[in-house]
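Me: I'm a chemist; would you kindly supply a protein sequence with its structure tokens?

Assistant:
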Amino acid sequence: MLIFNGKKEAAKILWDLKKRIQKTKVKPKLAVISVGKDPASELFVRNKKRAAKEIGIKVIHYKFKNSTKGKRVIEKIRDLNKSPSFNGIIVQLPLPKKLKTDKIIAEIRPQKDIDGFGKKTYFQPPLISAILIALKSSKKNLKNRKISALVNSDIFGKTLKKSLSKEGFKINYLKNRKSPKIKTADILITVLGVPKLIKGTMIKKGVILVDAGITLIKKNKIVGDIDKESVKNKAAFLTPVPGGIGPLTIAYLLKNVYSAVKYHE
């Protein structure tokens, strides 16, 4: 089983960004909005801040309590939309269930929507960029392969399907964790955050596995949706957690922040 090295790919992108940012007059600035305390999300935000600092991107984190109403979050987004000093805005997902994610994301200006989930966004979602790089690194013929994606939100499922369609891939996104399409998939993408859900008995021989699910099980230990030990003798390719899709997603997010500078000069 070939193991994808996301850290290595991310390092290349970040090094290139650092050199570019050192030459720019306007330094990129990112606003991160989070609501409540989701341990995995908090870890992801910390990793984003660390990577941004290393390459010269400033990050301001706006934290809201779990009880915060959607109206308050939208007000903050509108303020940030007006601010010329911020090049990018992200809302860290998942949001508390009582908040309407689609409505909140839609408030971000397309020029600042670096997470790429708005309908008129100027950017490809970093997570999808990372998934595409991983697929192309599998060294397998991807043409006419059956692709299934297990997701926990329609907003991501629809965006993933649309983005991969542009690349010539046909994909089924699933919310049913017992769907028969899991077993028949040539390529299986998971974005659930359910520890070690996918076992060797659930997949076909030679499958390409892209694990984009993260669960924090201890203070700083994360695991993915796929049980690596269980699938190692059956899968052909795996993006591990940690060290796979996560670092690459952060790198592409920061690349989008850098690209957004041109819209605010």
